[in-house]
Specification:
Length: 337
């Protein structure tokens, strides 16, 4: 989710900052100009990691703060974290027709993004698309988790146990080895040709493929593994400890298609036992992302993850036994990258 119409609540003055107020949009802390909003006012919330359009009048005042990538970020203003951008409805009026303020809360976020030209920030695509196919095999979707702040509270499964793993700051990768011996190296959005050379194919051929070949030989079935590539300067910044050291593949999910690819069994989620089933019981020789343990998920725990220090890393991924999953990111970490 990159944007939605929502209400701002809990507006209060920011100590030692005469021109700023603090507020809450969904569960995102935001800083807004003092006196610019009243309690429960509806506005447009643009989420962190959204990408603003270049050609919209309403977006122009914010482009000075988003850099050349037009990427909306988490920032720290006068000692307070501010996530995303909250825009007054009247500032959208010249380009967006608003007849009933209450009804706009029901507009799907995806449609809002299309109407206003808001996209999602993604790293630059490969310069040479000859090395890649612009999709993933077997109708796979790109790996992604929603921020918990964007999810209605009744869908967070509060009070239930879930597996919590550390969200590593690298690049997402998917690898497939079919029962017939076909091997695919994929990034988050692209499938790379096996004879090109980049971090995806290097990790794929040197680390992942040998493990998958043993699996296929033993079980005679196709296996899909998804994980995070870290090390060797990947996503290098001043706080990313995952960018240090050699290239590594950190497994976070397995998928086991049927022979006709119509029925998929999913592995590695929900409980620590499920997560380690393929690696420790069935013998898949790949290292997993760091496991923090099974925890009962509460609102207070999610806020702890949100307010965690940058030294703890990018954040966590929370996975329930029914497959529900979402992420909790550290504001401190994201305000420093």
């Amino acid at each position: 989710m990159d944007c939605l119409f929502s209400r701002i609540t809990n507006i209060h003055p920011r100590p030692n900052a005469d021109k700023l107020d603090l507020g809450l949009v969904n569960n995102w802390p935001v800083v807004v100009p003092k006196g610019s909003f009243i309690e429960n006012e509806i506005g447009l919330f643009i989420c962190p990691d959204a990408k603003l359009p270049n050609n919209k009048v309403w977006a122009e005042p914010f482009l000075n703060y988003t850099g050349k990538e037009n990427r909306v970020r988490t920032v720290k203003l006068r000692g307070e974290y501010s996530n995303g951008i909250f825009v007054k409805l009247k500032d959208l009026a010249s380009e967006y027709s608003i007849h009933d303020e209450d009804l706009i809360l029901d507009i799907k976020p995806e449609q809002v993004a299309i109407d206003l030209g808001i996209g999602h920030y993604s790293p630059p695509v490969p310069n040479d698309l000859a090395v890649a196919f612009p999709n993933l095999p077997l109708n796979l979707t790109k790996t992604d988790e929603e921020n918990w702040e964007n999810i209605p509270e009744h869908q967070l499964l509060l009070g239930q146990k879930a597996l919590v793993t550390r969200k590593m700051d690298g690049c997402s990768a998917t690898y497939i080895l079919t029962a017939g011996g076909e091997f695919y190296c994929c990034g988050r959005r692209f499938t790379y040709k096996n004879d090109c050379f980049n971090r995806y194919t290097k990790v794929g051929h040197e680390i992942v493929r040998p493990a998958l070949e043993k699996w296929v030989k033993k079980y005679n079935e196709t296996i899909i593994v998804r994980g995070e590539i870290t090390g060797h300067g990947v996503n290098g910044n001043k706080v990313n400890k995952d960018s240090k050291g050699p290239l590594k593949f950190n497994l976070f999910k397995t998928i086991h298609p049927s022979k006709d690819n119509t029925i998929w069994k999913w592995g590695l989620y929900g409980t620590q036992g499920h997560f380690l089933w393929c690696t420790e019981v069935l013998g898949l020789e790949l290292e997993t992302v760091p496991i923090l343990g099974e925890m009962t998920i509460t609102k207070d725990l999610l806020l702890q993850f949100q307010q965690a220090p940058k030294e703890d890393g990018e954040g966590v991924v929370i996975e329930f036994e029914d497959g529900t999953h979402y992420k909790a990111k550290s504001m401190d970490y994201y305000s420093n990258i």
